[in-house]
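User: Fold this; tokens only.

Assistant: Input:
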Amino acid sequence: MRQPVEYPLTTIVPPVWPTGADLRPPRPQTPDSLVGNTPLLALRRLPAALPPTVHLLAKAEWFNPSGSVKDRPALNIIRTAEAQGLLHPGMTLLDSTSGNMGIAYAMLGAARGYKVQLALPANASPERKAILQTYGADLIYTDPLEGSDGAMMQAREIAAACHPHIFYANQYNNPANWQAHYFTTANEIWQQTGGQITHFVAGLGTSGTFVGTTHRLKQLNPSVQAVAMQPDSPFNGLEGLKHIPTAIKPGIYDEQLADEQVTVQTEEAYQMARQLAREEGLFVGISAAAAVVAALRLAQTLEHGVVVTILPDNGFKYVSERFWHNA
């Protein structure tokens, strides 16, 4: 029988504990310091039939502190308004939302001392409503048939009263929205791919993610191809996304940026959400699944390339949706 090896105690180096002036408390972090620098994930099983020279990557935006990509524009909108003297503690931040942006506002507002008032379609998922209420947001429910446009019109009506203690964030028309992605999301993707990205795919809601990221990526490499994705019809189940031809067009949307426009059906996104959970171990939201549908469809046409898309959030805000249980 082989005898165990005995190591003399003299080989063990005792730890050196800091004392006196060397003992300093760790630098505290705040919620806004955790925004950005999200992982870039490689999808491996879904694109198994692709050539080895084609890579499909996705930005996991649920790693942001409130759980979605919207932390980026919400934080930049707030910081910009503070710098311009438009927002200060004691004021109320007002905007419309389909859910994620409102959650980002509510989280950051609670952390920075602002009240948050949100116009929200009444058919938003129960999970989103519960999260917003937990953060203390004041919710104004709007007609679900009017979608995000109806919520926007309600917020505009409130803002038109010009209450001195209300700051209207106006995410659909605020350049600080797309600039957040210009300065953070795009540069992270460029660094994480080593500048090898060839195609960028993102959904259109406020359009901030697509506009800001595309604008910067094309500055870094004009040959990067940008694909804008949206629902195939005005009546759809892709929460957070807009059917641009029939919706109020966001003021920050630049129609000239996209090299290609594609549409995704709601059922395609539902099926992909189930696939991502069961084949990739990624529990993502519906708009994230729609983005993967578009990105995979594009990747299947390529012989080589690095395709990057955005996964705006995970699936925890949608667990009440019945499609998860379908075959």
